[in-house]
Design a protein that fits this description.
FMN; D-Amino Acid Oxidase, Chain A, domain 2; EC 1.5.3.24; binds flavin-adenine dinucleotide; single chain; 2 domains; about 425 residues; nucleotide-binding; flavoprotein; about 30% helix; nucleotide binding
Amino acid sequence: MKRYSAFAIAKEALRDHTGWDRAWRRATPKKRYDVVIVGAGGHGLATAYYLGKNFGITNVAVLEKGWLGGGNTGRNTTIIRSNYLQDPSAAIYEKSRSLYETMSQDLNYNVMFSPRGVMMLAQTEHEVRGFKRTAHANALQGVVTEFISPARVKQLVPIMNIDGPRYPVLGALWQARAGTARHDAVAWGYARACSDMGMDIIQKCEVTGVQSDGGRVTGVSTTQGNIACDKLGMVVAGHSGALADMAGFRLPIESVALQALVSEPIKPCMDVVVMANTVHGYLSQSDKGEMVIGGGTDGFNSYTQRGSFHHIEETVRALIETFPMISRLKMLRQWGGIVDITGDRSPILSKTPLGGCFINCGWGTGGFKAIPGSGWAMAELMARGRSPLTDAFGLNRFREGRFVDESVAAGVAH
Ligand SMILES: Cc1cc2nc3c(=O)[nH]c(=O)nc-3n(C[C@H](O)[C@H](O)[C@H](O)COP(=O)(O)OP(=O)(O)OC[C@H]3O[C@@H](n4cnc5c(N)ncnc54)[C@H](O)[C@@H]3O)c2cc1C
């Protein structure tokens, strides 16, 4: 793989950019791989990458029914933070956040990680108590967060109205090294690095069945033929239930639409990310100047990748009290993704009832931030059969009642 650098750009500029390679090879499936990963979203690609980088397993195929990064990875609002309440969550999300800090250098691909700070507004007394509790928990977990006053909120985000009649701002949980990254670049960077290690990334290759023998996975049927494998990783977010069905087990999971929208581009006016959980909306400004707005999930299950109109109306209406300037903005685009939500709002990284078959799902509305940490942990789970980062997130927790309850920390889309 040709390294990207200032020198390479200068050299290519002198010869009309004719010397760049494809970022990743176009591959056709082989008959057999050591590991097959289903789903070329961020989590699937990161899993493949760390299988190669950390464990030297490179006879790997990543199968994608559509185009790489075209699922939730390319549809999210890119908020990255790690200030969760429970210890196992803080551990995996903080691992992930710290990997984001060096991802561009690690992948030699600019993922535009911007640690601009994320604040979660407390707009009820209940939230003040909850966020103070989370700040204390984070202090014990070694995650750097603080509870800040309304005056400090106003100082960080001058365009905010902190004295709203319904929901005044009473403070915020602030993580200064949280932020955003460019979602497509995360998928593309991992894909390029995987391809460079000799892995096959096969797009337009839908998995339609899972083959097994004596309780162990032996391969998958796809729209490009049968592919044998020793180990199978299912990393398909909103379609996890369908994949599990093919492998003969059920998941405690629901698939629902979550949507986001962006405004017309405007001059820089806000250089942090704001989440307002009570009014159910969140806001950041993209490098292009668009205000990126996310809301809540639809109240019913679906696979439509669209989301209903009343949710957009509700989200924007709710945010206007805190950000009155939004009322004068034109909205440019809206889109949706299908997120996979568990009862305790925590992910599933687990072995499954089918031998050799592993599942990574349940990141719901908040899995973009987890991509590198999840890939790191899932690779370890698949290579060694166990990872300390995934111990608490097994499927058995639903049978044993050991929930990792993050419904307060993850109750809003982010
Ligand atoms: C509107 C919106 C806003 C969000 N905002 C944030 C945010 O700000 N911060 C945050 O942390 N998270 C956010 N999220 C959540 C985040 O996007 C997801 O948790 C994360 O991207 C999941 O990544 P993934 O790789 O597991 O899934 P995906 O990116 O969805 O990848 C799964 C892939 O599997 C493929 N697939 C499915 N079935 C098959 C099959 N049978 N065969 C082959 N391939 C298959 C799909 O085509 C897809 O490409 C948001 C999500 C949405 C929808």
